[in-house]
Design brief:
7 helices, globular, Fumarylacetoacetate hydrolase, domain 2
Length: 269
């Protein structure tokens, strides 16, 4: 089946950007373009990001998604995906997310890496990532989708190409207050108890991210090196969720309890 043309990439990227601004969803790109592959998906994402850049928004980092085995099996893939974080996505700990800010928000638990040096190239090691990391922090990722999760007519569900095109379902990030030395922690055992309205919805450990959250950073740096890009000093990098996404309806209150590493809070108005 035929893939997508550069014009298709541009039109779909702009449609996603306009959908984000309008707070609405578009139909599944994977249905409109049955031959759409991962390269097409990232090309659409790039066009969406270009529209955000042109609007004056500032890139502040990256997110890695689909790192857990369960999520990969659900989407029948064997590799993570990635998207880009912007300044308008960053929320303070304890933030109140305005009603209507997102379309269908969900929450995930993550470990955020904040870099103090660039990371580039295909030969990065775990030691390279630790040396380039200023600190890690507990975080909540706020997911959203500008593409419908399920086609109301056919019942078809979103594919990984839809998710990637939609900036890997990026919505926002809430950073915890703690700052920790990545080299002094076994990140595999850094975990979270996620509560919604005082009910424990999910628990998980950093090991759920490719057996070591650092491996997510290595994967991302290697992937973008293929396109001449790199992770830069000052970037915030979400290393991937180790729990399933939890729905965040209006009126809900979330607490990510990271034990000795502190709590991350947010409310959805």
């Amino acid at each position: 089946m035929a893939g997508m043309t550069p014009q298709d990439h541009k039109e779909c990227g702009l449609a996603l950007y306009e959908a984000e601004k309008a707070g609405r969803q578009i139909s599944l790109l994977s249905q409109r373009f049955p031959g759409m592959d991962l390269d097409d998906a990232y090309a659409v994402q790039n066009e969406m990001l270009a529209a955000r850049d042109a609007a004056g928004l500032r890139r502040i980092g990256w997110k890695i998604g689909l790192t857990s085995r369960a999520m990969q099996e659900a989407l029948q893939i064997t590799t993570p995906d990635s998207g880009v974080l912007y300044n308008d996505m960053l929320f303070a700990n304890g933030a109140a997310v305005p009603a209507g800010r997102f379309i269908q928000p969900r929450v995930e638990a993550e470990i955020a890496f904040v870099l103090k040096a660039d990371l580039a190239g295909p030969d990065l090691t775990r030691a390279d990532v630790i040396a380039a990391t200023d600190h890690v922090a507990p975080a909540l990722e706020l997911l959203d989708t500008r593409i419908t999760r399920k086609d109301p007519v056919t019942g078809a569900i979103r594919k990984v190409t839809d998710t990637i095109a939609d900036n890997a379902a990026n919505g926002g990030i809430v950073l915890g207050d703690g700052r920790f030395d990545a080299g002094a922690i076994d990140l595999r055992w850094m975990g979270c108890v996620l509560k919604r309205d005082d009910i424990v919805e999910e628990t998980g450990l950093g090991a759920g991210v490719l057996n070591d959250p650092v491996m997510g950073i290595i994967w991302l740096a290697r992937r973008i090196a293929n396109y001449g890009d790199k992770l830069s000093a000052g970037d915030i990098v979400l290393s991937g969720s180790f729990i399933r996404p939890v729905e965040a309806p209006s009126g809900s209150h979330f607490v990510g309890d990271y034990g000795l590493f502190g709590e991350v809070h947010c409310d959805f108005l």
